[in-house]
Design a protein that fits this description.
The complex is a heterotetramer. Chain A is an all-alpha fold. Chain A is about 70% helix and about 0% strand. Chain A has eleven helices and no strands. Chain B is mainly alpha-helical. Helix content of chain B is about 75%, strand content about 0%. Chain B has 13 helices and no strands. In chain B, α12 packs antiparallel against α13. Chain B is globular and about 85 Å long. Classes of the chains: A mainly alpha, B mainly alpha, C alpha+beta, D alpha/beta. Chains B and C meet through α2, α3, α5, α7 and α12 of B and α4 and α10 of C. The structure holds adenosine-5'-triphosphate (2 copies) and magnesium ion (2 copies).
Chain lengths: ~280, ~325, ~475, ~550
């Protein structure tokens, strides 16, 4: 089995992968919407106008307005930005801490490995949502703390992936060759190991991103996520629930937005895995 | 096998010990005074002090930690600040809801996921597979609280078939209890089933490309028989991991669902206890959950050995 | 045959069931008048009614109260009720090591004497105008010496319902007490179901899982109940003055002009509409509109952003400033916060919203006074006196106001009391201590066949003693 | 009449033709050898015979078992044929067995499927079959799991599975490539015996001409999905007509040209190893157990002279690679002393260490695995120059890389390509170029050609011989393949169980092996010429016998 194959440009094949393409479309939709919201939204959302509330779709407000008279489309766009930023930074935290830890565990073995892996177990042993609630109780709700709460659980995930990847490389002769060239362990890790597990990490990152979006929605739903004036899909959903009977659009749109973005990043991750992870290619044998 | 178990158990207790420190420290620095929460805004300083003394909040940190841990080891989880009853009693009551709920959800998700996953694997690349996999993708992306709300809307409010939430207690009849758990269990199970089905499918596809499957086919076994006799059992190994993770997730991570259905479960107990600063309940409750997760991991490990003889040591 | 069971939704689960040992309103919501009774009780419209005390006499100087007790009263465990129990209960509440959350209610009592089996004499150290009202609080109910210690989990009182069982996190059920001394109640059993989530409350009500929700947590859904003949929606008042509290010592807020500017900048009607879906009455000071001494001051600060900007300019804050708005969990606060943030932004004041749990709110805002703005509803009845308290979290210091309250506390004459109350209302309004937003409305939803539930909430209680099903 | 025949069989997968008009047939009791290099379509032919072609395959032509047409036969028919009439032994004994089922279950499964019999009966039959393939009689065998057996035992189980239902036609796809030579010899003997006794027809697939020449009655040579030559064994090898066949035979007994640069037996040794021991801790079975150690290399002493080429042979797991890693300084010895260029690499200063590392480089077994797929050839070959990082300029570095590439016969333009753009032989050249770039005195080559096809192997051996003479490098040449070692080394060391059991000049050791283990090894090693000679003798004997009668 060739676990780590040549860097043939997998993107040429990308156009043939359905899930990659659909995922790319959906994810880009969300990403672009979020990005545009940095500069422009159809309406400002931090100025509330109760007189204008609960309007149906119109040329003014494409998706109508919410209970405070805010433009729902604008809220959704900013919500996209919020959840992607939260999820992205949380993934960043996971990568930043998890990958070095995983690589350390794989190269140092022995006690270091034991310590890293046991810490992983420890984090995994804490039920995620409850810990997130504890963390937000400790630090107060808000975007930053949602990032921390989600990010902490990304660390062991990436540590595991990095360690697994590094271990499956460990028997490979090119690492021995590099050692014969007098290179230090750190250097070998940076030059050989890291680039070779990059695929695995990218795939995992996409998946964690979609999980992060879901987690952010869950936390916001409980009121522990980003706070107003920032819009957040989970909070929109929570606030809309009781108005479902007379204003179903309020609950419908953010729900759809969550489904679309999670679906998008998931499909993207799946597609990337098909393209980059040779374990699947092995089946073509 | 035996000494392997002992070794694992030793590691697990170490995890528990570390967890107890983490939990204790976190709650130690958690802002908010339990006494004030209990007595409200009109309470006077001396009343507060009296209550704090009564709750044992004035003892030194180390003493409190040691007392707590020693207590737990003897089955004494402390007395809830708010409810004023032994925490162990509270947890037992709540577990009587959460554990069956998780179990039903798990059974449900397995019952849905296995056939679906196996079907998808059998008809890999065909329309059926594509359809199933598309559905599971949506299933994964669906936030379960959103799904739960929809269920309530349809089955409780519109059709009035099932209760919208709440739990009557098992002493009101097992049937009534089950009835109350159906919707929450479905809300929990479906997204999990989607994940499980995907894992089942990909594990099975992996296994079906193994050489020993070809060997079995070379013996003359038909494709279907090969799948069941040689495929499914070997595919169970990765599936077990996910099952184990899911069960702990289901037991512990149901705060949101328990809120939607106002079920008196473990997750909500802890959630409430945090907001009420019922620290002893939080501490002990979290420890029980952690222990549960750890225990399930252990059981999954043992189950591995049952499925995969390579992991049975000592032979 | 007529239904005789009631299931009633409550938002918060009581931590325990002893009203004499905790501040949680949820304790009273279950036990008040149903399980426990005091010497007096408060009626559906806030009036003081006799309860375990048949009648009373007040001495000329207002310092001695003599209570004549009801006969034939027994506790749910069968022990007879007597004057000794009254003495025990009051002494226990005011004792040094008491954990009574409303200990100040008993602060003026200097002695409780048992005159005979059915008569109790309470002596005060100074006259307290509201003493009979105070004795009607849930915190002043009479408990028996034998069972007092166990009341948290197994409450034993003298009321028409006795405690049956409590499924924690789920429901508390009561059964009719057949040995009740007074008029027997119509209901045979009642259960209080804990449903915190507004959406779940809506679902429970709609699906008929609960019969009544006297304090319905989702005002936005009421239209749907109103449109449905199965339900009755009763809108009443509460004692909850909802205010945008300001830390009168923090930076710009120490300037009266700034506070006045803020009072002008907040659009209260929009707030009531937006946050409460219209369920709330505008107020102009810290006083309940249904109280006879209420004075309508809502015109003091009309919604006028331009005026607000001018005042800010005058105060030297033409450019505005930045501050925090710390919000406790209730929806009126969280929703109102968003709207107020938007209102103040328009006059140049930028608020950072910091949501807090109650526990954190209590320690950060209430005790440490580490806040600029907060939104909270003060639900105690007749609590304008808090503005005179030293070290209260508003940091409001006005000796003239303190004087008025001292006088009010001494005064027993109704007329004069009302005059003082009006004066107090005007003073804090003029000082713009806080922004007085609205009187929290109470919206109850119940089965249209149900009768006898309270419409208003003079105290936080669900008195179901008069509830029955129509045939 | 032929038991089995394929006629004009063509197979393509997703449009790519894999087999082109392949025809062959087997008579009752006949052994047909199918040889050819990797990827030539041998396995695909076998899979077509079983109708177990991978997804996406389309086939054309005809395959017959006795009178039945197999191509396009229904799944039900095939399920009756497979295992019962046609059976197959797969290459990798570990992966061919289901790890979660017992041996008894797996062998009896086919019996239960094809015949109406009780489980009890099936297990009795299974026991008999297992005995037949030479598995020790003990009742526990049935209850064992694959991981509890050795490689040779596993392959016997796979054979038992294939012959349990007494099929008339057996296919063995590289049944011995994963095994040591001694075990290989046993398994081949077993197959031969079964075929003879049961009058079974056998299609034996192998890349090893010697094996096929020894076993098969007739031989077919495959290349690129076609059978290029086909005939009775002895005759075919005598009259090879197709150029590819000739090339193949020539390559598999290729001997590079002899050494031209003479050795100086009195020179100071380049490498001297004294009493080297290397142990590994074994995993503890219980917490309380004392830790056990496995001695991979046990008191080994050896020396290598400048320019000398020393071979190290021995069976799998005897400690060859461990010894190599220790010599390379990648692992510390547990005991013993190493001296390279007169210094102990584990005790020198940092600076001296660099110098020592420059002097000793390595070439590994798998030419693909020894490259980082993400680095260009230039970067890969330049990697050891890291040792000279403060001494030479970037241009000098490039010059050295180009020189090294040229020394192994590659073009300078190749430097910018990636490993996957090269063939197996080119890749191994690149690996050698990397080893050469620091101009080392000693190259440790751990199985450098065992992953390569015979024709490529011949090229690489030539290259190594050429470098030996041109540059004067010394080799420590590790291999389990005796013929390779014989071809390129001056001296041979034979290892068994971590110890050196015999040592001497190559010729002497192979010609007159002294140690019984060496003797066994030499005897078991397949040798094309020897088998052909044997076969020739047998043919003459048969002919004279026929003439006599
Ligand atoms: N599943 C598949 N899909 C596409 N091509 C395949 C597949 N399996 C094998 N091939 C190709 O078919 C050709 C013949 O493969 P085959 O396995 O028959 O070779 P072989 O002669 O058995 O080689 P080896 O000695 O390496 O086993 C090769 O070029 C291979 O790449
Ligand atoms: N890192 C290690 N830890 C534990 N045991 C090891 C380790 N490396 C090698 N061994 C053991 O040491 C013995 C010798 O291994 P080594 O790899 O040197 O064998 P080899 O002769 O090269 O075999 P092969 O021909 O299969 O490559 C084997 O039994 C092996 O299992
Ligand atoms: Mg092959
Ligand atoms: Mg080796």
């Amino acid at each position: 089995m060739d676990t780590f194959e040549a860097p043939i440009h997998p993107f040429r094949r990308a156009w043939k992968s359905r899930s990659f393409l659909i995922g790319l479309c959906l994810a880009s939709l969300i990403l672009i919407a979020g990005f545009i919201s940095l500069f422009w939204t159809p309406h400002a959302i931090d100025s509330l106008n109760v007189a204008n509330r609960l309007q149906a779709s119109s040329s003014q407000h494409w998706l109508g307005t919410d209970q405070y008279g805010r433009d729902i489309l604008s809220m959704l766009m900013i919500g996209a930005r919020t959840s992607i930023i939260v999820a992205l930074i949380a993934v960043g935290i996971g990568l930043l801490f998890g990958v070095p830890l995983g690589l350390l565990a794989a190269t140092k073995r022995g006690l270091v490995e034991e310590a890293v892996m046991r810490t992983n177990d420890l984090i995994f042993a804490f039920p995620a949502i409850l810990s997130a609630i504890l963390i937000t109780a400790l630090l107060g709700p808000g975007a930053v703390n949602a990032v921390i709460a989600i990010g902490i659980f990304n660390i062991p995930v990436f540590a595991r992936v990095a360690r697994g990847g590094a271990l499956s490389l460990s028997g490979r002769d090119f690492l021995l060759a590099a050692r014969l060239s007098g290179k230090s362990g750190l250097r070998i890790t940076l030059e050989h190991v890291l680039p070779n597990i990059a695929n695995l990490l990218i795939v995992q990152a996409t998946i964690q991103l979609s999980l992060g979006i879901l987690a952010e929605a869950g936390l916001s739903y409980l009121g522990l996520g980003p706070q107003p004036p920032l819009a957040s899909w989970g909070r929109m959903l929570n606030e809309a629930q009781t108005m479902m009977a007379f204003a179903p659009q309020l609950a419908l749109y953010p729900g759809l937005a969550i489904v679309v973005s999670v679906l998008g990043f998931n499909l993207l991750g799946d597609g990337l895995r098909d393209l980059l992870d040779p374990r699947l290619r092995r089946r073509i044998r | 096998m035996f000494s392997y178990g002992v070794l694992r158990l030793l590691g697990l207790s170490l995890t528990l010990f570390a967890a107890s420190i983490v939990v204790f420290v976190v709650l130690e620095v958690l802002p908010g005074d339990p006494a004030q929460v209990m007595l409200g805004i009109s309470a006077q300083e001396d009343t507060l002090a009296a209550l704090r003394e009564q709750l044992g909040l004035n003892a030194p940190v180390l003493t409190r930690y040691v007392d707590w841990v020693l207590g737990m080891l003897q089955g004494d989880f402390g007395i809830s600040y708010t409810y004023n009853v032994p925490v162990s009693e509270l947890i037992a009551e709540r577990a009587a809801v959460s554990l069956p709920l998780a179990a039903i959800a798990l059974i449900l998700s397995t019952a849905i996921a296995f056939p679906i996953g196996i079907m998808a694997a059998r008809f890999r690349g065909k329309a059926l597979d594509t359809g199933i996999m598309g559905l599971t993708q949506v299933g994964i992306a669906l936030p379960n609280f959103w799904f739960a709300i929809l269920l309530v809307y349809v089955f409780a409010i519109t059709l009035r078939l099932l209760p919208s939430g709440g739990f009557p207690g098992w002493d009101q009849g097992v049937l009534n209890g089950l009835e109350a758990l159906i919707l929450p269990a479905i809300a929990l199970a479906l997204p999990q089933a989607a994940i499980l089905a995907r894992v089942m499918r990909s594990a099975l596809i992996d296994v079906m490309s193994e050489d020993y499957i070809r060997t079995a086919r070379a013996k003359g076994l038909s494709a279907r028989v090969t799948l069941w006799r040689h495929g499914v059992r070997n595919a169970l190994i990765p599936v077990l991991t996910i099952l184990g993770l899911q069960f702990s997730f289901l037991v512990a991570g149901t705060v949101i669902i328990e809120n939607v259905f106002y079920l008196p479960g473990l997750g909500r107990l802890i959630f409430q206890a945090i907001t009420q600063r019922d620290l002893i309940t939080v501490k002990s409750g979290v420890m029980v959950l952690v222990a549960l997760v750890v225990l399930i991991t252990f059981i999954v490990d043992l189950a591995y050995a049952a499925v995969d003889p390579r992991l049975r040591r000592g032979r | 045959h007529a239904k005789s069971a009631l299931s009633l939704g409550i938002v918060l689960e009581p931590p325990h069931l002893d009203p004499t040992a905790g501040a949680a309103a949820a304790i009273d919501e279950v036990t008040y008048a149903n399980v426990f009774e005091g010497l007096t009780r408060i009626g559906p419209n806030g009036e003081v009614l006799p309860a375990l005390a048949k009648s009373w006499e007040i001495s000329e100087d207002g310092l001695t109260y003599t209570f004549e007790l009801q006969d034939g009263v027994t506790f749910h465990d069968g022990t007879p009720f007597s004057a000794e129990d009254v003495k025990f209960s009051l002494d226990r509440a005011r004792a040094e090591d008491s954990t009574n959350a409303q200990k100040p209610l008993f602060a003026a009592i200097s002695a409780v004497n048992v005159a005979d089996e059915d008569t109790v004499q309470v002596t005060l150290s100074e006259p307290v105008g509201s003493f009979l009202f105070n004795l009607g609080w849930g915190d002043a109910v009479i408990v028996s010496k034998e069972s007092a210690a166990g009341n948290k989990t197994n409450p034993i009182g003298t009321g028409p319902f006795k405690f049956d069982r409590w499924i924690k996190g789920q429901e508390i059920s009561l059964d009719r007490y057949e040995g009740y001394w007074g008029t027997p109640v119509a209901l045979e059993e009642a259960s209080f179901k804990v449903i915190a989530d507004p959406n779940a409350a809506f679902a429970a009500m709609m699906s008929g899982d609960v019969d009544a929700f006297p304090n319905f947590p989702a005002p936005e859904t009421l239209i749907q109940f109103e449109a449905d003949p199965r339900f009755k929606v009763a809108v009443g008042s509460t004692e909850g003055e909802t205010i945008l509290a300001m830390n009168n010592e923090s930076g710009p807020l120490s300037n009266k002009l700034v506070r006045q500017a803020i009072s002008h900048a907040v659009n209260k009607q929009a707030l009531i509409d937006g946050a409460m879906f219209g369920r709330g009455t505008p107020i102009g000071s810290h006083f309940a509109p249904h109280h006879p001494a209420y004075e309508d001051l809502t015109g003091t600060y009309t919604f006028d952003p331009e005026k607000a900007k001018e005042l800010l300019k005058e105060a030297g804050y033409a450019e505005g400033f930045t501050a925090t708005l710390k919000l406790p969990p209730p929806q009126y606060a969280r929703r109102g916060g968003e709207l107020i943030r938007s209102d103040l932004q328009k006059v140049g004041i930028n608020l950072e919203i910091v949501p807090l749990e109650w526990a954190q709110w209590l320690s950060e805002v209430f005790r440490e006074k580490n806040y600029d703005f907060t939104i909270v509803s003060h639900t105690e009845p007749m609590d304008i006196g808090i503005y005179a308290r030293d070290d209260y979290y508003f940091n409001y210091k006005n000796p003239a106001f303190d004087d008025i309250i001292t006088q009010l506390n001494r005064e027993t004459d109704e007329e004069k009391r009302y005059a003082l109350m009006k004066q107090a209302q005007e003073m804090i309004a003029a000082d713009a201590v806080n922004v007085f937003l609205f009187q929290l409305g109470k919206a109850g939803v119940w089965d249209a066949n149900l009768q006898g539930l309270w419409v208003n909430s003079p105290i936080q209680a669900n008195d179901i003693t008069g509830v029955s099903w129509k045939n | 009449m032929a038991v089995f025949s394929a006629k004009n069989l063509s197979v393509s997968i997703n449009g790519t033709p894999i087999l082109k008009n392949v025809s062959f047939s087997l008579a009752k009791g006949e052994i047909l050898g199918l040889v050819g290099e990797s990827g030539s379509g041998k396995s695909m032919s076998a899979l077509a015979a079983m109708q177990l072609l991978p997804d996406g395959a389309t086939q054309d032509g005809s395959i017959r078992y006795k009178k039945h047409e197999i191509v396009g036969a229904s799944e039900r028919t095939m399920n009756e044929v497979r295992g019962r009439s046609i059976s197959m032994v797969f290459q990798e004994p570990m992966t061919a067995l289901n790890p979660t089922k017992t041996i008894g279950d797996q062998v009896s499964e086919g019996l239960l499927w094809h015949f109406k019999m009780t489980r009890q009966r099936a297990l009795e039959r299974t026991q008999k079959v297992l005995e037949r393939v030479g598995l020790p009689f003990d009742n526990h065998m049935l209850d064992r799991y694959p991981h509890q057996l050795s490689g040779g035992q596993r392959q016997r189980v796979v054979i038992a599975m294939a012959i349990a239902c007494k099929p008339r036609f057996l296919i063995a796809d590289e049944p011995t490539t994963a095994l040591d030579v001694t075990i290989q010899a046993q398994i081949l003997a077993l197959l031969k015996e079964i075929v003879r006794k049961d009058q079974m027809s056998l299609l034996l697939i192998s890349h090893d001409l010697a094996v096929v020449a020894d076993m098969a009655d007739r031989v077919a040579i495959m290349k690129d999905g076609e059978i290029v030559e086909h005939g009775p064994t002895g005759q075919l090898f005598r009259t090879l007509s197709h150029p590819y066949s000739q090339q193949l035979v020539e390559a598999s007994s290729h001997i590079p040209k002899a050494r031209t640069r003479p050795l100086d037996p009195d020179a100071k040794p380049l490498l001297a190893v004294e009493g080297l021991v290397r142990t590994y801790p074994l995993p503890k079975r219980s917490v309380f157990e004392k830790r056990q150690y496995h001695t991979a290399v046990n008191t080994v002493s050896l020396r290598i002279l400048p320019h000398e080429s020393v071979g190290l042979v021995g069976e799998s797991g005897c400690g060859k690679s461990t010894l190599a890693r220790t010599v390379l300084g990648l692992e510390e010895p547990t005991k013993g002393h190493i001296s390279f260029l007169g210094k102990n690499p584990f005790e020198v200063s940092h600076k001296e260490e660099k110098a020592l590392k420059r002097g000793i480089q390595a070439v590994f077994q798998d030419p693909y695995g020894s490259f980082d797929p993400r680095h260009t050839i230039a970067k890969t070959v330049a990697e050891p120059l890291h040792l000279l990082r403060h001494e030479i300029s970037e241009t000098a570095k490039n010059g050295k890389v180009i020189a090294a590439l040229e020394a192994v016969g590659l073009k300078p333009q190749d430097a910018h390509k990636y490993p996957h753009e090269f063939s197996g032989g080119q890749r191994q050249r690149i690996a050698i170029a990397r080893a050469l770039v620091t101009e080392p005195q000693l190259i440790v080559a751990d199985e450098p050609v065992s992953a390569l096809d015979v024709s490529i192997r011949a090229q690489i051996l030539d290259l190594l011989a050429d470098l030996r003479d041109r540059l004067g490098v010394a080799y420590l040449f590790i291999s389990h393949d005796l013929s390779v070692v014989q071809a390129i080394t001056d001296r041979v060391i034979v290892m068994n169980g971590g110890r050196i059991v015999e040592e001497g000049s190559t010729e002497q050791v192979f010609r007159h092996p002294k140690h019984p283990y060496t003797r066994m090894l030499v005897a078991a090693a397949p040798d094309l010429n020897a088998s052909l000679k044997r076969r020739h003798k047998a043919e003459i004997k048969a002919r004279t016998a026929r003439q006599k009668s």
